[in-house]
């Protein structure tokens, strides 16, 4: 039996990766940050909460990272934890660098000191490419980060490369393009849309405020993308891979399709709010993942329309269950704006 340690196991990718590794017979450990309100709903949603071993750790505290590695004795470390919301990095740029950038160094240094044979996966991102005006983007496309988040991720990318080449650690960068699911956080535009569309279809909300409708992204399905992480660490030699669908759609396309799923006209409900625009936004991201197909045997199956349907239908189902008074693992009660709607809905 192999042991795996997942930093950020409570996030979207961490929870789906844990589910997949458990199905392969791994003993799964995961780090989480101690919070006043525990954030384990995704693990509960996937019915794996009792199957993983949770270890408190913080990316700004090297001793806690070393402790997590000593406790878990992992064969593989999947480093997914980060300050992962691009928009928030403009508000907290120093925190983005400290956690998302230097956190990678602390994990790699712990591996170097404790067990040089541990395989390491770094969650890199398509945001590295920024506004380079080259699309599609592959492993050789120049990076041009356009946010503090992307700049911090770029530091982590190169640290992973340096520890691979300088110390012989089996370390891989997975340059994953946007990947979504029903457990995506509500601060991300895809889930913001699917959640709002569900409420609007049920008469709980009327309008949806969005920022840049013309931003184009390569959107895939998160449960498929975590498989690519595992595949990278099963190869004979470590390498870096782009993971994407090769298709690009705008935020407007996502909203339009989401409203189509519930039989509504998006133009009657969507409003553009200038305050939701980022100081610098990336115009277009489109992944070219032929290397992953050739070397890993990985390619996406769920494409754009099906992804949107999955997300909208799940959020509609959640709000209907809520209206019936059911209790289930969900993130809406943790958001004040959603909690108010939940309260009104239950009173109706």
Features:
2 domains, 43% helix, two-stranded parallel ribbon, alpha/beta, Rossmann fold, 13 strands, UDP-galactose 4-epimerase, domain 1
Task: Describe the protein's architecture and organization.
The chain is α/β, with parallel strands linked by helices and 348 residues long. It has 2 domains: 3-179 and 219-243, 3-Layer(aba) Sandwich (Rossmann fold), CATH 3.40.50.720; 185-218 and 251-284 and 304-347, UDP-galactose 4-epimerase, domain 1. It contains 12 helices and 13 strands. The chain has helices spanning 12-23, 41-45, 62-72, 86-91, 93-114, 148-167, 189-201, 222-232, 251-261, 290-296, 304-323, 336-347, and strands at residues 3-7, 27-32, 53-56, 76-79, 119-125, 171-176, 179-180, 208-210, 216-217, 220-221, 241-243, 249-250, 270-272. The strands form 4 sheets. A 7-stranded parallel sheet has the order 3-2-1-4-5-6-11, sandwiched between helices. It has a two-stranded parallel ribbon with strand order 7-10. It is globular and about 55 Å long.
* Strand count: 13
Count of individual domains: 2
Helix content: 40-55%
Tertiary shape? globular
Examine the coordinates and then state which fold CATH places here, giving the name of the CATH topology of the largest domain: Rossmann fold
Radius of gyration: 20 Å
- CATH top level of the largest domain is Alpha Beta
Strand order of the largest sheet: 3-2-1-4-5-6-11
Q: What's the overall average pLDDT, rounded? A: 93
Low-confidence stretches: none
Note the run of SSEs as H and E. Answer: EHEHEHEHHEHEEHEEEHEEHEHHH
Query: Which percent range describes the beta-strand content?
Result: 5-15%
Distance between the termini: 52 Å
Alpha-beta classification: alpha/beta
Number of helices: 12
The CATH architecture of the largest domain comes to 3-Layer(aba) Sandwich
By CATH, the superfamily of the largest domain comes out as: NAD(P)-binding Rossmann-like Domain
Largest sheet: 7 strands, parallel
């Amino acid at each position: 039996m192999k042991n795996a340690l997942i930093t950020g196991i409570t996030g979207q990718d961490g929870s789906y990766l844990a589910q997949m590794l458990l199905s392969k017979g791994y003993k799964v450990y995961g780090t989480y940050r101690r919070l006043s309100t525990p954030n384990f709903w995704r693990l509960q949603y996937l019915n794996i909460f009792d199957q993983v071993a949770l270890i408190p750790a913080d990316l700004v505290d090297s001793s806690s990272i070393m402790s997590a590695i000593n406790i878990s004795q992992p064969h593989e470390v999947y480093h997914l934890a980060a300050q992962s919301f691009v928009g928030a990095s403009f508000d907290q740029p120093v925190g983005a660098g400290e956690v998302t950038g230097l956190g990678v160094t602390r994990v790699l240094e712990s591996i170097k000191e404790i067990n040089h044979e541990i395989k390491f996966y770094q969650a890199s991102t398509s945001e590295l490419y920024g506004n380079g005006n080259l699309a599609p983007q592959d492993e050789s496309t120049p990076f041009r980060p356009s946010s503090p988040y992307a700049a911090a991720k770029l530091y982590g990318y190169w640290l992973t490369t340096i520890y691979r080449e300088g110390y012989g650690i089996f370390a891989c960068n997975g340059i994953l393009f946007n990947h979504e699911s029903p457990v995506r956080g509500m601060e991300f535009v895809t889930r913001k849309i699917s959640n709002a569309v569900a409420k609007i279809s049920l008469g709980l909300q009327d309008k949806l405020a969005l920022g840049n409708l013309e931003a184009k992204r390569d959107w895939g399905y998160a449960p498929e993308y975590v498989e690519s992480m595992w595949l990278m660490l099963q190869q004979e030699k470590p390498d870096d891979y782009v993971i994407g669908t090769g298709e690009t759609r705008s935020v407007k396309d996502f909203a339009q399709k989401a409203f189509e799923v519930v039989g509504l006209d998006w133009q009657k409900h969507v409003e553009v709010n200038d305050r939701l625009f980022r100081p610098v936004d990336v115009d277009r991201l489109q992944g070219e993942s032929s290397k992953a197909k050739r070397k890993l045997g990985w390619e996406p199956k769920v494409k754009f329309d099906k992804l949107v349907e999955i997300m909208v239908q799940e959020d509609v189902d959640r709000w209907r269950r809520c209206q019936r008074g059911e209790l289930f693992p969900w993130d809406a009660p943790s958001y004040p704006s959603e909690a108010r709607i939940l309260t009104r809905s239950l009173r109706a």
